[in-house]
């Protein structure tokens, strides 16, 4: 996969060169190119923002530097049958989820546009929509100073799904949100620490019991911390034992969906 990021703070993205993603780039599994938006502003001060039409607080990012930067990215991409995807971090976008991370991990190329100030001139997105598949995406219902933090989170979530990036692919299957539930609690040595013991079932060696315990813990943790993930969920994927746990937690199956009782 190739990922291009356009930002006025390219050094902000330096952590993406570390750890698993850094190794993925060294191994040729991921190509990450970061572009400085100010390289496409040609006035004396390399200006990328101006006051908003209609008045109001803050500054708006100018369209021309963005147009030139995105044109440069397009020119460097190999010809493709379909338009490349442009991700624009925005609190007004669709919420980033594990499902979306899996979807985007299937793309051969991704371009991220890191906005700042009050955002990017809307005409950039209109223009880009003729050349890219534009997707405004939000990390959640809160506002950041710029798109760089959101891009780092999304690139890490997407990049770790690429084949070969995570050493043990089974770890991707059992983690939180991979099946709509939160991950079960995990433990390591020693078996007793400061008066707290590892659950006996994990020391039993009985893999069937361990699997059932972990599944039950997923259900209990999800019901306790993120109950909205269960309400309305398709009940067909839950077996008899799981439904018994869900009933204990206050969920009934109504027309094939989970509902609180």
Structure, explained:
With 261 residues, the protein is α/β, with parallel strands linked by helices. The chain has eight helices and eleven strands. The protein has helices at residues 19-26, 63-76, 98-105, 122-128, 148-159, 170-174, 207-225, 240-248, and strands at residues 2-7, 31-36, 49-50, 60-61, 85-95, 109-113, 133-138, 192-193, 196-197, 251-254, 257-260. The strands form four sheets. The protein has a five-stranded parallel β-sheet. Strands 3-4 form a two-stranded antiparallel sheet. α2 packs parallel to α4 (122-128) and α3 (98-105) packs across α5 (148-159). The longest helix has 19 residues, at 207-225. The radius of gyration is 23 Å and the shape is elongated. The chain starts with a strand and ends with a strand. The mean pLDDT is 93.
Throw out a few tags for this protein.
261 residues; single chain; alpha/beta; 5-stranded parallel β-sheet; 19% strand
């Amino acid at each position: 996969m190739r990922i291009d990021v356009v930002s006025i703070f390219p050094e902000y993205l330096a952590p993406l060169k570390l750890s698993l993603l850094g190794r993925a780039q060294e191994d040729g599994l991921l190509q990450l190119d970061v572009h400085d938006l100010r390289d496409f502003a040609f006035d004396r001060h390399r200006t990328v923002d101006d006051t908003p039409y209609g008045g109001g607080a803050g500054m708006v990012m100018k369209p021309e530097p963005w147009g030139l930067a995105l044109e440069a990215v397009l020119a460097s991409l190999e010809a493709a049958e379909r338009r490349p995807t442009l991700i624009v971090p925005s609190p007004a976008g669709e919420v980033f989820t594990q499902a979306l991370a899996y979807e985007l991990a299937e793309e051969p190329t991704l371009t991220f546009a890191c906005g700042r100030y009050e955002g990017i001139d809307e005409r950039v997105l209109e223009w880009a929509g003729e050349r890219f598949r534009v997707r405004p995406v939000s990390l959640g219902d809160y506002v950041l100073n710029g798109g760089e933090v959101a891009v780092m989170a999304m690139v890490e979530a997407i990049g770790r799904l690429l084949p070969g990036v995570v050493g043990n692919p089974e770890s991707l299957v059992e983690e939180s949100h991979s099946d709509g539930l939160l991950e079960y609690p995990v433990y390591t040595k020693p078996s007793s620490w400061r008066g707290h013991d590892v659950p006996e079932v994990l020391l039993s060696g009985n893999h069937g019991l361990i699997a059932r315990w972990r599944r039950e813990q997923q259900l209990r943790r999800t019901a306790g911390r993120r109950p909205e993930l269960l309400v309305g969920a398709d009940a067909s994927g839950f077996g008899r034992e799981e439904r018994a746990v869900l009933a204990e937690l206050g969920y009934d199956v109504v027309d094939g969906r989970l509902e609180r009782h």
